[in-house]
Amino acid sequence: MQSIKHTLLLCLLFIGISNAAWAQFGFSHEVGAIVGPVSFRSDYGQRNDFSTNMGNTGYGIGIVHYLNFSYKADCNCYTPETYFNDHFKLRSELSFNKTSLKHYGEWVDPSRTSLFNDQLRAMRGSTQVTNLGMQLEYFPFSIRDFTNTIGGLAPFVSLGGQFSFYDPAAWSTIGDGEMNTPATTPIKYFNATQNESGSVWSIVSSIGTRYKLAPLSDLMIDLRAQYYFSNWVDGLSPNPTLYPENKSNDWLVWLNVGYIYYIE
Q: Measured between alpha carbons, how far is 89 from 104 in angstroms, rounded to an integer?
């Protein structure tokens, strides 16, 4: 845990130094906060099942920082008019999400009464993930025009990468709650669970829009997909050769709303 804290501090320091360096070029800054529900897609539940997608839902919160290339805060003036300056922003983010997990779908239906089904129904899990990274946002319409239009909309798409720290937990409501015992663990998950934290890279893509609330503030809504390059983020990883239905890495969908403030 101490190493994670130290890494986070170093990353935050790096972002601060980077932003200070970018500021020397005269770009302006925006800061904000985001929050919303997270649907975590993992080895819990049944793939493409509505009850799974809705049941394994948690929350996410975050703070964001933008480099605005179209405006120079040091002189209160616009930058040279180029396509990049008027259509792109660079977003830095520190976010956290947490989700409680269990099995849903036909295999835990009360009509199924085998030991395997009972063990599935008794399985519980959770994961909490801290993400740190950047995305490049593309606005198809002019950022300058949006800045000057109270009540205007500015749709965008983004793509980026994040470094993530995850902390999963898996247990059972049967017996003493310990996993990896014949009494509590379905055969496909035997020796395929862990309660150990780790780190992983992830790729992030989103689509959303801003609403110009006031000259120096926006509201934002953003639908994100985040794919982790690991199958252990949820604490489960069944053998993908024997159980191909669990071969995919963990990922999530996050619908967030945010408030963005422009720093003059």
A: 40
Span 99-129, pLDDT tens digits: 999 999 999 999 999 999 999 999 999 999 9
- Strand locations in the chain (E): 28-41, 57-68, 71-72, 77-78, 88-102, 123-138, 153-172, 198-214, 217-228, 251-263
Architecture of the domain whose range is 2-263: Beta Barrel (2.40)
**Burial profile 241-263: b = 16 or more Cβ within 10 angstroms, e = fewer:** eeeeebeebbbbebebebebebe
Q: Which residue has the higher pLDDT, 125 or 23?
A: 125
**Of how many residues is the chain composed?**
264
**Is the per-residue pLDDT at 255 higher than 70?**
yes
How many Å apart are CA 75 and CA 148, to the nearest integer? Answer: 17
Distance of alpha carbon 14 from alpha carbon 29, whole angstroms: 16
Whose tokens are 């150990």? That residue is 196
pLDDT of residue 3: 43
| 75: amino acid identity, one letter | C
pLDDT at residue number 75: 52
